[in-house]
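Folded chain entry
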Amino acid sequence: MDKMDEDSKITKPLINNRKKTNSKRKRDFCFYCEEEVLNFARHITRNHIFQTEVQQIMAYPKKSKKRNQLLNSLRKKGNYILNSSGVVKPMRSDLASTENEYLPCSFCFGFYKKKQLWRHRKTCTEKQEGGSKNAQADGQNFLLRHLKIDWQLRDEVFPRMRADKVSLVAKKDPLICAFGAKYLKMHREKHFINVTSRKMRELGKLLIELRKKEPKISSLFDALQPKYYDTIIEATKMAASYSTDKDKYESPTFAMNIVSSLKQCANIAILYALKKKEEYFSVQTAEAEANLKTLIQLLTDNWRYDISAQAANDLNLKKWNKVTLVPLAADLKLLKEYLIKKVEACRKAIKTKIANKTHYCDMVESIYCRILLLNRRRPGELQRVLLNTYRESSNPQSHYEEFDKTLSKSEQILLRKFKRLVIRGKRNRGVPVLLSEDVQADIDLLLSIRGKYIPEENLYLFARPGYSTTMCGYKVLNKMAKECGAKYPDAISATRLRKHLATLTQILSMTENDLEQLSTFMGHTSGIHKKSYRLPDDVYQTAKMSKLLLLMEDGKANQFKGKSLEEIDLNLGEELNIENEEEEEITAVESLDERLCDKIFENPINEEKESAKENTPPKINVNKKKRDLIPWTAEQKLKTKEYFKKHINKKIPPKKYECEKLIALHPNLFTNKNWLKIKVFVQNVYTNKCK
């Protein structure tokens, strides 16, 4: 008995340690009889033995790998029917996950978590050829394959859309899909696929907010009624992140642009209601048409008061105090030299037949940046140049021989050296692109090895190896600007390069006809050129208008009667760089200096004239006043260094009010110094110009 008691004491804890679970195994859905069964393998072998798939399963021995694969494949097909309305039987369940976090595999029909779907697709036993690389987009589109959707929208736009709740709502709504299909037919260029996706997602985001405000709304067609106008306004504010505390839109562009999409959707809904098409066949045509036209009138008359005016103000506030960056001439020169060196290295590799895919990509990107740097084109326009456009273009010199007498010698040389292409610009305008002789030679060399890396279906000149698309122009330019070692790489962008060109033309004496030709070359009108591409407002208003205001303040405006602002030169009595002119802070205004313009527009024909000018002795201005330099005392230097210790360590020039505070603390010490001299002294200290 004692021994049995000891054994029972030993076994009792083992029995108590067993985990008691109340979880039940979820039933599987039978693909044939459309019922949920507990033991799926036993059910199909007993009840569906005459089915072809079941016979294939039974042909393999039990517990074999192939038998289990076929059994799981059949189980997934049945569960897919069950999960189409709501995910209740995923392959790997997670209590913390919701239904929206699962997507089906487009090959085997099994439901997996979004983040793990790509991992399953790599080892999927039913994997087939085809399908995009984006597993989530394929899974979401697979759920919607039963819907009647425009084939171009389904095959081109849907795979590009992010597989989230917003895209799913947009893809399921028939009116949003009809809007996307119509927009895509109006804009047939391939890059408008992304624009179509963005506009559909905007409408999907609005529909989600509308459903939160009004649960009765199931589709966008239900929301397009006059009684829901106020609901649309509130939903738009929520989608545009409107803050009631700040009275400000975080996304003002969304609030301004969504109204045009809503109007187009209303017009499409009228057309579908008149045709009795799809879900509109049960709606009274006259009533639906009247309601939609009333809503369009409300949007036209009241949207600017409810949304657009405030959104436009918020958008303008961001632009008013935005600093205008203009690329420095030194950075542009550095970038050009870097591009030429990179092309030379790739050219040698191609000629010695050791070139690889990396050399091809580097050469394409370098040639693209060189053309962009010369022509100041928009990156999207240039990156979509077709290969046939380049091959079919010819040098214009043969067509204009009768005009040789009207051109100067330098212009005749440029006409022979440059090749002109005409590509599609904004609003279907034809914009020219000029190619120099060395760039043409590099492109021809590149085309000789193009077949090794670019597929035949890719029709673009600046193509991506292995793809049917083009390279991304603005990313390439940003990459090259950083690699070349420019001081301000962020200032080198396509928009700022275009502004830089238009700004420099203000220094030259150009006629209205010249400005019109320049505007046509840049792909915009003369009005846009004068309004958006001229000297930055902060530079012009500070440098030019301040002269006029100072003259009026001093009552000396009459002394400069008949003179322009450029001819007026004020003697301010002080210069910023008293001790060294090279200590000025580098700003964007330096690119407007006439000396830099001479470097940009220099011509080899004028080299003889320039050399002659160098040999002539410089003219001495007798009337120039000699500047009196007042030396700094030891005490002045000590106090200034102590006060601006943090500025010196961080190499930050002091502000005017900071220098004036120092003067106010020691009025007797700094009687012969003003704030400008103190600022320059601090700059010279942290640049080691003085001790």
Residues 1-22, 573-625 have pLDDT under 50 and may be disordered. The first strand starts at residue 28 and ends at 29. The first helix runs from residue 2 to 16. The chain has 32 helices and eight strands.
